[in-house]
């Protein structure tokens, strides 16, 4: 091979390797930098991780509805290439059947982390140009009996790559942090469901920036994630944020799921 050919090949490889990472500018928040997620040289999607959809539920915002009218902002490009910690939960509640899901996305289940500052979502986008009317979008609610779980419980690659849809996964407050109630106006409860609705609002407002169609959004959930889908289907204030729904395994009116929960979240908008 001639020196000229070697030089051309080196130049091409250098330029290819130096391709800029994907970025998206979110109005009223800032610019995020995602990363390419690939299973092979041709099976690639784009992932944007850890995007805040509400103010951190800390201090006076604990046991309160999510604050979405003043979202977190940043000036520099935000590194959105790794999952944020999951919401607080008892790790013993993460049953054996959920561990394989976590092992798909976490290098080691032992490194699984949690934080009270956890209201973040992740957006996975097909590689390439979107269709004229934009990608359909699925918002996925994880299982876990409202006491455990993580947005990293499901590897998004196959669905996004093969079906060419956008997938959004999210964390919301769990257990006592998400469902404690005094049964009155002091702490009405169901903050976890309100968090889900806040994320739905964020997706409806911003998914077009990722090539999605804001008028083609589907809710999807497995187990108690399916219960969440059913609750939003009967919640009038949620209906404007999605167009379709897929419930897997469970529904909103199963007695074990409803006997200990009040539907106060129906009043949140």
TrEMBL record:
Keywords: Glycoprotein, Hydrolase, Signal
Signal sequence residues: 1-17
Pfam families from the UniProt entry: COesterase
Domain Carboxylesterase type B intervals: 21-253
Entry annotated with the keyword Signal: yes
GO molecular function: hydrolase activity
Family: Belongs to the type-B carboxylesterase/lipase family.
Name of this chain's protein: Pyrethroid hydrolase Ces2e
Natural source organism: Asbolus verrucosus
